[in-house]
Design a protein that fits this description.
CATH topology: NE0471 N-terminal domain-like
Mean pLDDT: 96
Structural class: alpha+beta
Low-confidence stretches: none
Largest sheet: 4 strands, antiparallel
Number of helices: 2
Number of domains: 1
Distance between the termini: 25 Å
Strand order of the largest sheet: 1-2-3-7
CATH class: Alpha Beta
Strand content: 25-35%
Helix content: 10-25%
Radius of gyration: 12 Å
Length: 80
């Protein structure tokens, strides 16, 4: 099983990308537009809701209750 670094910080941008900082100081970016058409995440197309994202115990959590798998986030994000 692959061990990923822990997500420490997430900064959302107006273009639905999220800047990610991990416990090993790695910086990555995830393009969340890939998920906005999915029924579970379509409410996050409201930019104010999207930008409410927080990191809780290494996972992205929104005020609307949605979360995002930390392993998928790491695997599908790109280093910067």
């Amino acid at each position: 099983m692959t061990k990923y670094p822990t997500l420490m910080e997430a900064i959302p941008f107006d273009d639905y990308r999220i800047s990610l900082t991990y416990s090993n100081n790695e910086q990555r970016v995830y393009d969340f537009t890939l998920n906005l058409d999915h029924k579970f995440y379509n409410s996050l197309s409201d930019l104010k809701l999207f930008k409410s994202v927080k990191v809780v115990d290494g996972e992205l959590i929104w005020i609307t209750g949605q979360d995002f798998c930390p392993n998928t986030l790491y695997e599908q994000s790109v280093p910067v």
